[in-house]
Amino acid sequence: MNATIQSTFSAWRCAQAMLAVLVTAGVSPAATFTIVDGEGFESPSYSTTFIGTGQLEGQFASTTGGFGTQQWLQSPLAGAGTAVVQSSVVASGSQAVEVNRAANSDDRWAVPVSGYPSMQYICIEWDMRVDQTFSSTGFGPFFGVEANDDDGNPVLRAGMLGVDAATGEVLYGDSVSGLIPTPGGETVAFDAWNSYRMIFDYSVNMYHGFLNGVPLFTTDFEFAGVDQFTDADIAALAASLDAESQSLTGTAYFDNFMVFETSEFDKQIPEPSAAVAAVMGLVAMMVRRRV
């Protein structure tokens, strides 16, 4: 599958949930606009030999909205973690990104943008495969994606979604309890590809998480004051604050990374009942805070 077809398919997949109810109801389809098109990390846009190693930072992503093309950046600049374009492990096409977390080094890779949102919703989607990290008592590392508002000091995070490489738990960012397992306790198999999606509603400052198209949660933005979208970061982080978790290393693979904004999405996502919400709150209090 070439990069153009792959990007089109990925955009269609993200829009599926947003269009289903609208079509059924006879409403005009939602307006969608691509912000960052990762092009499946495919050649010729991405090279496995860039600066000798195929490192992701410095390579260009396709952006729209008058911003032309922007380079992927790594934060911190001197981080010990690596993200490289490779052709051995892929979800589709012939290339994907291998991300390695180094001990005591939290690293992120992102394409900075500005001027968003101009519509109500930001949608981030990606495919990810996580290798297992073995640990006796530690958590993580966490591999996933964060959404940030970097237009200020400090940077404010709207939300995050990913996987604990030691336990296989799907984790997300909660405004009260930090990085915690999803309310349903979902896990994924190691060495297997899964699809992830976050949809951020800037009208009510809440976001939704999905695993393989299935809703996982709806919750507030992690930090108060988020009103813009500036970057969606591929993240390799410690999943807890204890020394062992901080020292854990691990590997994950990312493919089909896309960021859109849209005017509508599927309103059929069920809201939790009062009883379920109470249980979710109790579970959150019982889970050890990670980040």
TrEMBL record:
It comes from the Bacteria. Keywords: Signal. Residues 1-30 form the signal peptide. This is PEP-CTERM protein-sorting domain-containing protein. It comes from Botrimarina colliarenosi. The lineage of its organism: Bacteria, Pseudomonadati, Planctomycetota, Planctomycetia, Pirellulales.
